[in-house]
Specification:
By secondary structure, the chain is of the alpha/beta class. It has a domain at about 65-210: 3-Layer(aba) Sandwich (Rossmann fold), CATH 3.40.50. The protein is built from six helices and nine strands. The strands form two sheets. A seven-stranded mixed β-sheet has the order 5-4-3-6-7-8-9. α1 (about 5-25) packs antiparallel against α2 and α2 crosses α4 (about 100-110). The radius of gyration is 17 Å and the shape is globular. It binds S-adenosyl-L-homocysteine. S-adenosyl-L-homocysteine (SAH) binds near residues 69, 70, 116 and 118. S-adenosyl-L-homocysteine binds next to β2, α4 and β4.
Amino acid sequence: MKRSKREAKIERFFASERKRLVRRKIKGRGIRDKAVLRAMKAVPRERFVPENLREFAYDDAPLPIGEGQTISQPYIVALMIQAAALTARSRVLEVGAGSGYCVAIMARIAEKVFAVERNETLAAELGPRLAGLGCQNVEIFAGDGSAGWPEEAPFDAIIVSAVAPHIADPLLQQLAPGGRLVIPVSRDDGEQRLLRVTRHGEERFEEEDLGGVKFVPLIGEEAFAPST
Ligand code: SAH
């Protein structure tokens, strides 16, 4: 079989696996946002994982992406994006872009996605990977995003994809009125909770607990200190 034919066959296989994952594990577990479901059916997760792990791309599980980091579990990505309540006019920030998988899904829903990644190796791979998938409405910054991206604020939504020790005030201040911050925070007992904070007024915020989660640590100025 010619390479292109073989590749096309593999792509079709992945597309059917993807549909199954979305039906069973995303919609099946209660994600209702149609734009999220549509985008998850479209973004090829196999392109965001290392070549040798491609066969596991449609397991509903996190996978290693190198540099001691992981690509998030699809259901959790869907839950976070649904909680961020994106529209076609949203400007959204992701802190901890990692593989860029969550960025690519949000880029299909929102007007513009700002992505910050602290690890230089991972950050350098983001641009080419997203461009290769036709993502044009994304800005990438390689560095510490624990205090947000003040130059590009305000944001309609901020998603933090690594666990923080507390909710940093600069992130709250970078929310537009009505804006949503979705962030995992670790409690004193070590358990991580996914929180959504909605900005109702200048200094009026509502906090909701969306459940238990497991993320790698957010490291930076407004987060945990680096271990070395
Ligand atoms: N949504 C990503 C998750 C990657 S894991 C995906 O699905 O691929 C979390 C990422 O947060 C890691 O890549 C880690 O390097 C990054 N990170 C940790 N602290 C950070 C910080 N202060 N600023 C930006 N990125 C950070």
